[in-house]
Write a structure and sequence with these properties.
Number of strands of chain A: 0
Largest interface: A-B, 41 and 40 residues
Oligomer: homodimer
Order of helices and strands of chain A: HHHHHHHHHHH
Radius of gyration of chain A: 20 Å
Amino acid sequence: MPLSTRGIDAQDCNDAAPEDRAEAGDHAWDTLLELVTSRPKRAPDRKQNRSKRTEQQILNAALRVFARDGISRSRIADIAAEAGISTSTLYEYYKSKEDLAYDLPNSHLVSFFQEYRAAVVGKTSAREKLLLYLSMSADFAREHADWGRLFYLEIWPSVLVSETELRHSVDDFARIARYLIDEGVRQGEFPAGRNSYETASLLLGAVNQVIITWLLYRRPRNLTKASAEMADRVITMIANERP
Amino acid sequence: MPLSTRGIDAQDCNDAAPEDRAEAGDHAWDTLLELVTSRPKRAPDRKQNRSKRTEQQILNAALRVFARDGISRSRIADIAAEAGISTSTLYEYYKSKEDLAYDLPNSHLVSFFQEYRAAVVGKTSAREKLLLYLSMSADFAREHADWGRLFYLEIWPSVLVSETELRHSVDDFARIARYLIDEGVRQGEFPAGRNSYETASLLLGAVNQVIITWLLYRRPRNLTKASAEMADRVITMIANERP
DNA sequence: AAATAACCCGACAAAACGTCGAAAAAAATT
DNA sequence: AATTTTTTTCGACGTTTTGTCGGGTTATTT
């Protein structure tokens, strides 16, 4: 649980000190990080502690079962049993399997953004920030492989994701990459003249491909090394690209 | 229906004329193309024409319904109704919805390989072949958008694909890219010293990302142009990479 | 044209999903 | 601390979807 309750304070500095130093106090960057780490949780309307515990049990159980069987083969009854509750209780918390599946990855995703936010402090160049971002995203999937399988292999590419709340967090994922690419161009680390949207697709597509292959086949063996290499390689290519 | 019945003749040239010209008559390349265009169809044991028609109706209906509702929300009964048959008849052909969903993309995929095989004749450099391959893959998804949604957004990344027959065709997809990269290195078009597996991930990941984004959001508007640009850009980067 | 094989469907069984009202537990009120 | 009220849980039950089976229909073979 990194960073915890930083929610409010970064936002209301909007009208406060408008620093003019170009490098260090990057306003838009802070705002973006604040945004992605504070997407509101759905349905926080439970009163008793017992409920929070039950909800957590459901989430843990669902993650295990989904990762093991895939969403389509998983049964609500199995998840409820694994969570130690009755199926009807589960329906008190989520109105359907789909609802559960598409809410589930949210908390992990926010955790990832929080971890990144904490780790990126001190990095100055856009290139460093970008490399860290991509490396950390792969490492996060490795450390939370059950979540990774669910998110990268079932949720992210799904047609259904565009109808859910999760969509915003997914969009944030690309938004950060795009922001850093633009920043790199402004600071002269990357050549100008390219569509940053396309460049972001290139970067994310390449790294995600490595992650997905690892999640499916556990190859290459060392994901941390492979993804960092890939990220570094592609970033270098982009930096050296003739405009 | 491109190329139609070229199945057999290319195979029995295995023991025939072993041409030594390095460029034109590339044996391994022909063999690979032959392999990917002739993956055996599952369950060809139907005798009557009536059955072939019924099976085709099922496939067409399933493609429409899956693309419209997503696999998980689609109902067998809907597909059967759309195909103009009873549900129990559908079960004569496919033992489950999953079975149907994972067999469905096969024929289109083979068609794509066949179209590519026909179009690549005459291209000599590995770079040209690779560019054509990636461009055509995007264009094929655009022309068969229903199939594209099913294949790229639901089947390919799925955990379940690794258990199905379709896996082989999916593997073929990457194998061709890898082959062409290796060929490019041999012919000096690309610098040596890189893992061709990694380079293939980079290429496919980048282009697929463009395709997926288009399938989900219809952006960028012109997929043909965007994917060709992306492919060309990445191939150029790889060609210019310092070893 | 009779026999055999292939194909199709209605009726039924099984499994999974989802709802509801009442019981149990916790919190609030008196 | 007994009560009322609110929150949470669960078993019983209805609905939807999946999957099976035997017999009837159509095509093919002899």
